[in-house]
Amino acid sequence: MFDIIYLLEMIGVVAFAISGMIVARSKNMDPVGVFTIGFITALGGGTLRDLMMDNHPLYWIKHQEQPILILCMALVFSYWHRAERIRESRIVFPDAIGLGIFSILGAQLALDLGHSWFIASLLGVMTGTFGGALRDTLCNEVPYIFRKDHIYASISFAGCWLYFVSQWYFHNETVPLTIGLLFIVIVRMAAVRFDIRLQRDHG
Amino acid sequence: MFDIIYLLEMIGVVAFAISGMIVARSKNMDPVGVFTIGFITALGGGTLRDLMMDNHPLYWIKHQEQPILILCMALVFSYWHRAERIRESRIVFPDAIGLGIFSILGAQLALDLGHSWFIASLLGVMTGTFGGALRDTLCNEVPYIFRKDHIYASISFAGCWLYFVSQWYFHNETVPLTIGLLFIVIVRMAAVRFDIRLQRDHG
Amino acid sequence: MFDIIYLLEMIGVVAFAISGMIVARSKNMDPVGVFTIGFITALGGGTLRDLMMDNHPLYWIKHQEQPILILCMALVFSYWHRAERIRESRIVFPDAIGLGIFSILGAQLALDLGHSWFIASLLGVMTGTFGGALRDTLCNEVPYIFRKDHIYASISFAGCWLYFVSQWYFHNETVPLTIGLLFIVIVRMAAVRFDIRLQRDHG
User: Fold this and answer.
1) C192, CA 20 to 30 Å: which among B155, B173, B198, C105?
2) How far is C157 from chain B (nearest CA, A)?
3) CA of C146, closest CA in chain A: separation in Å?
């Protein structure tokens, strides 16, 4: 059977790992640092989610092909991708993909375990944002979630609710998944492109 | 039935959330940042406690009215509380309330689960101090627990032991709770007011 | 019965606690700060390991003599060990001992719980490096794992694999343990002494 959830998870892991490795390379880290940042960015959100919901074994312990894939990616990145100053634009897209996939899948897992929409949306936001927040903290960047320059966590939150409502409306699996995911990715890209924020600075 | 433990937990959550939101506003964060810091400050200690003692579901997942309350507080704070430079004095009181309540309740939960007084006091200190430590770290302040200017964690530790001893002495629930709680809040306020510390600097 | 695993764990806890307390004293922390850093350095890796593998109660909750020992050490250190500028050389040896012991024991626990060699080696590296990484982060040093000046995590990873292979070869408990442990400690000391690194800087 073709398992859409597993495929999405894999895409999310790869996207977040790429975003982490680009940042790690821009800091001129060695291969171990590149792997560590890639691993933490890709699997940090899911690990927090599984710990908080007591969902054992952790998903990367159950699916060891995911850390193996990240290890291979780290080797390729370290010897092939030149260390260079970070270009923000190259991270925004993989980060948005990872944010979208992990937010929706985290929220869905919470629903599966019987939690309410509100709790599920919080757990979705945590799953979607935690890996990226660790990446930015460990690489001495201000995490997106604490930057005021563009909306980030609120897109994930809104995307989860859009997903719940369309699930309730469509009685279907793939349509709501597509709606929630596209919403998060597109709005996030638009927020960066058109400079959308929640609050203007007022000294 | 009037549940004193639940009421105290609620007061502790509100007090810590206020302390977090004051700091977040002083850093001019947007509403999502204010909610995030408030949430982490109020629920971080209890989450660590529940994870370490394998006490599932986490208490904010079980009592979803707590994150909902924090969300409402964050909205009110963001649009009503002017962003201004932090005045230390306004945080010390809510922080002391939260420290007292979570230390005692964390220690009590550990006793309920059959742990020794020593382990319970360590878990009490972690429950009481972790939320505030995350708040200060995320807002680029030095956490109280690592500041030498006033005693902090040692008050929580002493308060837990005072609570255990008075529990053993009084065979009662509310008297030891009151003693432990008042001790922590009053000594903490006095430590800040009268500049009590464990160690003077010696270059 | 003479329990070699328990003895090693105790040595690892003491070694990591010493490394943490030396750093904490060099930052002129008060006794509570010294205890906190010692506790987190010594028990952080094992706590992460137990949480990730859902191995409850946590080992310092089960063996309360370990935090009690750390508390006694913190008191001795605070009043006896003069606060002074850190000399890197004094931390490298206890840190290498702790790294070796916790990497191997973490990996072994993962094998006991039925995980694959690859997952066990990742959990071994996390167990071995997490305490030291927290110590360095909390004391405002760059964690070894993110420094490029000498290899660190890769030694732990290689040591775990050497341990697995010699276990498979020798059908024995103590020989592989000794091989894995000595490998990590000696190679780590040599890496610092002879300046071995994975990657030269290329601006």
Assistant:
1) C105
2) 27
3) 6
Please indicate, yes or no, if residue C164 is contained in any of the structural domains: yes
CB contact (8 A) between residue C32 and residue B119: no
Closest-approach residue (CA) in chain A for B79: A199
Compute the CA torsion angle A76, A81, A82, A84 (nearest 10 deg): -130
- CA pair distance A51, C18, nearest whole angstrom: 30
Chain C residues in contact with B191 (beta carbon < 8 A)? none
- Residue B101 and residue B159 in contact, taking contact as beta carbons nearer than 8 Å: no
> What are the pLDDT digits (tens) for A102-144?
999 999 999 999 999 999 999 999 999 999 999 988 887 777 7
Pick the residue from chain C with its C-alpha nearest to A53.
C54
Is position C89 within any domain? yes
Residue C202 lies in a domain: no
Residue B47: Cβ within 10 Å count: 22
DSSP label of B146: G
Domain count, chain B: 1
Residue C200 covered by a domain = no
Helix axes A31-52, A117-138, angle to 10 degrees: 160
**ipTM for this model:** 0.86
Question: Domain residues for B19?
Answer: 4-194
Please, which chains are in contact with C (at least 3 CB pairs closer than 8 A)? A, B
Euclidean distance between CA atoms B133 and C134, whole angstroms: 14
> Are the CB atoms for A189 and A101 separated by under 8 Å?
no
- Asked whether the beta carbons of residue A201 and residue B68 sit closer than 8 angstroms, the reply is no
> Are C35 and C74 in contact, with CB atoms under 8 Å apart?
yes
